[in-house]
Design goal:
- With 248 residues, the chain is α+β, with helices and mostly antiparallel strands.
- It has four helices and 15 strands.
- It has a single domain, classed as Jelly Rolls (Sandwich), CATH 2.60.120.
- The strands form two sheets. Strands 1, 3, 4, 6, 11, 12, 13 and 15 form an eight-stranded antiparallel beta sheet that branches. Strands 2-5-14-7-8-9-10 form a seven-stranded antiparallel beta sheet.
Length: 248
């Protein structure tokens, strides 16, 4: 006759066998063969001591943006919302199926040569990306804001968005400070980030800190949201990415 303790241990072992195990995936960013760029020109380079993926806007996407700005000017519309209908996303799909889990990597962003004064080196990660390449949740950084002399700019260093329904300016207008925060950042500098997604909750960790820099308790894709993972950047940015791992 088996002892109660032994029976308990056997039950635990059986349960562990039945439970699905987490899958860890290291994405090779030193080759472009398996990556799927969208409005992004990519290449493998050596950057700041690491093998990295470099991304910038394509010439075709640059032309689309210029045409959209011309239409905006002709219409007399102004402000962030004016050009939102013509907004395009710059993405590199690195994993096709993600619902919940952890995304870890290093990013570096800086304004592209010749970019406007509003360029911030925007760089980040989109998750639960849909096939239309327009619908996704995203955490991103504004590296030039991190050590700005203007405190308000510093407070906008890290951001959550959910496109296309919840762009940054809408979230900032409707719920000031809820979806963005201060983080000490520098442009053109490797920055370690980690994103943890659980249902309708997501957390952004920066610099390997144990505590999250930004917590979102109402991820817009919802509890059952699912989609791809993509490296994200804005068209005025030259972005670099390295050491990508996905646990789900």
């Amino acid at each position: 006759m088996k002892s109660p303790l032994r029976l308990f241990c056997l039950l635990l072992t059986s349960a562990a066998i039945l439970l699905p195990s987490a899958v860890s995936k290291t994405v090779d960013l030193t080759s472009v063969d398996e990556l799927k760029p969208h409005n992004a020109a990519i290449e493998v380079v050596k950057y700041k001591g690491q093998n990295a993926l470099k991304a910038r806007i394509t010439d075709e996407a640059q032309k689309k943006i210029a045409e959209a700005r011309q239409r905006q000017a002709a219409s007399g519309r102004t402000g962030p919302a004016a050009g939102d209908a013509d907004r395009i996303s710059h993405l590199i799909v690195v994993d096709e199926d993600f619902q919940n889990g952890t995304i870890e990597l290093e990013v570096a962003g800086e304004p592209a040569p010749g970019s406007s004064g509003g360029a911030r080196g925007f760089v980040g990660v989109a998750f639960r990306l849909q096939p239309d390449m327009k619908t996704y949740d995203c955490f991103y950084l504004r590296p030039t804001n991190g050590r700005a002399e203007d405190q308000e700019r510093r407070n906008h260093s890290a951001q959550y968005i959910s496109h296309p329904e919840h762009p940054w300016y809408k979230l900032r207008q409707e719920t000031p400070s809820k979806y963005e925060t201060y983080v000490d950042l520098q442009p053109a500098t490797w920055t370690e980030i980690k994103i943890v997604v659980e249902g309708d909750k997501a957390r952004l960790y920066v610099h390997g800190n144990e505590q999250p820099s930004l917590i979102v308790s109402d991820v817009k894709s919802g509890v059952d949201g699912r989609g791809a993972v993509a490296l994200w950047f804005e068209g005025s940015t030259v972005a670099h990415y390295a050491n990508l791992k996905i646990l789900k």
